[in-house]
Amino acid sequence: MADPAMHVKLLDSRILFLGAPGSGKGTQCKHLKAELGLPHLSTGDILRQGIAEGKPACLQAKSYIDSGNLVPDDLITVIFKERLVLPDCSRGFILDGFPRTLPQAESLGAMLKELRLPLKCVFYLVVDDQLIIERTTGRLGCINPKCGAVYHIKNAPPQVDGICDICGGELKQRDDDNADIVAERLKVYKEQTAPLIKYYKEQGMLQEINGARSQEEVYADIINGLRSCVATGGR
Ligand code: AMP
């Protein structure tokens, strides 16, 4: 980033990403995390890692994830809060996948008020259903939890089939990225998560970004949006 003073200000950013599954939230969060060094709190990743490690709360969530439904608000809020209160979140963070319902948004507001860490900006990545289905059903991820690189069968294939270019780990499709479960996740998104767009718009925090473009173009808009957010002191 060219301007060092602005870079320092961006380090305190508290950012939330909204968008359907496959809208590119995870990818953009990884870029932001690499550039700003902020923790990336993805509830999907937290749940999948917790399941792999046999954590009881995450194992309770497994049947919901497998069917494409949302984990109950009480359970996911406890799991999320455990992560949010860790010291690395005390300056800034990037939220991806929480909140996903209005009650979760209310809980988040209360938690951030208590921690005196109000959100600064909310980005909504806009992508149509057809592209969502194409992206999610072709997605492959590295199973090495330390890597987690994401590929796409057609748009971003690995150099060697089934093998991660970065760490040599095995690549797999997520169980919930098959076409039937994606359709269910999209339905759940529209019913339960999309109302958050209006919720944050009414709070004057929402910036809409066209997510149906290259990663670089989307990222450039996010950085510009973040700069204007920081320059105006968030809300
Ligand atoms: P993601 O990786 O963000 O697509 O999340 C995968 C799955 O984890 C979702 O389909 C839900 O079953 C569950 N999940 C993740 N975040 C939440 C949340 N905030 N509330 C409820 N369920 C969630």
Name the strands of the widest sheet in spatial order: 2-3-1-4-8
CATH fold descriptor: Rossmann fold
Number of domains: 1
Kindly report the name of the CATH homologous superfamily: P-loop containing nucleotide triphosphate hydrolases
What is Rg?
Answer: 17 Å
Spans where pLDDT lies below 50 across 5 or more residues = none
Shape: globular
Give the class-level CATH name. Alpha Beta
CA-to-CA gap between the ends? 23 Å
Structural class: alpha/beta
Gross CATH architecture = 3-Layer(aba) Sandwich
Main beta sheet, described? 5 strands, parallel
What's the helix count? 10
Helix content: 40-55%
Mean pLDDT: 93
- Percent of residues in beta strands: 5-15%
Element order: H for helix, E for strand: HEHEHHHEHEHEEEHHEH
Give the bound compounds. Answer: adenosine monophosphate
Q: Number of DSSP strands?
A: 8
